[in-house]
Amino acid sequence: MSDIYGMTQFNRSQFETFWQVLNAKLKEIETRDGLTGVIEALKQEQLDRGFIQDDLSDVIKYRMIKENDPGHYFIVQYNPRRALRFAGAGRRIPPVGSIASNGGCFLCRDNVRWQQRGIEYGYDAFLDSPRGQRQYIIWMNPFPLMPNHVTVGTSLHRPQAWLQSDADMGGFVTRMDEIIQDFLSFLSKLPRYVGFYNGEGAGATIPHHFHFQFFRRTEGQDGFPLERAARQGGEHGSKTGPWLVPNYPITAIHFRGTMEEVSGQLLNVIRYWEGMFTDPSVITANVIGSMEASNPKIFNLYFIPRDKTFNRGPGMVGVIGGLELLGEVVYSTEEEKRSLDRGQVNFDFIERIIASVEAPRARELWSLLLGQ
Ligand SMILES: [Zn+2]
User: Fold this and answer.
1) Is 1 a domain residue?
2) What is the DSSP string of 118-135?
3) Does residue 2 lie within any of the structural domains?
4) Domain that holds residue 231
5) What is the CATH number of the domain that holds 245?
6) 223, CA 20 to 30 Å: which among 3, 41, 170, 232?
7) What is the distance in A from the centroid of ligand 1 to the CA of 47?
8) Is residue 157 part of a domain?
9) What's the 109 CA to ligand 1 centre distance in angstroms?
10) Measured in angstroms, how far is the CA atom of residue 115 from the centroid of ligand 1?
């Protein structure tokens, strides 16, 4: 059936017009209240429009406390709406007159209009860098895991992995410098938020389109188990980092300092990690970070070296990404709920899930760093 009245074109231009109007409004908000204000406003818009279908009201949180040690715990989040995302939140087949770009990638703006039936909008965020301005789009997560959970994708379709094979030069080129710079740049604009970069094969759900995730901390919560473990180590007194997070089920390397300090130290560690493998295609990692509430010049970053061949925990439907590594595991299926209700899930079980994605050579990396 042909579109003789040009209604596809009409819808497309209406979408574009509304995008511009909304972005102008959000830009005003950014000038006044910063990027956190933009996310609040975009969330309200997307709830009102019906794109965000879940306000986290169905979520139940369990605290799994270590036996005889109430200071140690993991969190299990039971989030039943999250299971719906497997059914696909959007339309898969484009209507007549539209085409699916990049295999129907749902972080590509061209696909978003027809996939989400014209109700999903994002915010164009620009970052300044020495090599020119870089453009991202902030999208609300329709099935959030946390308050104000956003996916921040590049405006262009480019892969999530930071090591890219280089056809001209042979071998691999690393894009981590740029990724860390942009990640810290977003963190600096998002006080009280936590962010992560999940490498390909390390919990990234959309490996073909580059993205970060950010969410707002829950008021009154005393940090995530990973952050608590880092603090309990008392490492800040001794010297500048990095430090190995003590008493944690997976190798996590902690950096604390100014933007320049943490990015320099982290990139050094990543160079070591990259250098340990003859086959770079197995190398991956998670980077988690936030700006300190009491001192906005200070950043905390965590690097978890990962191996793509070890990415899923036993007894978990989902993969292990940044949130799980922070110590909050997400369950969403009825089967998982039953195992929670039957008391089959406890501290030791969660500890084993997190430990199971430890890269076999992670401790070797830490030893190398100590010996450098
Ligand atoms: Zn894409």
Assistant:
1) no
2) T----EEEEE--TT--EE
3) no
4) 7-371
5) 3.30.428.70
6) 41
7) 24
8) yes
9) 8
10) 13
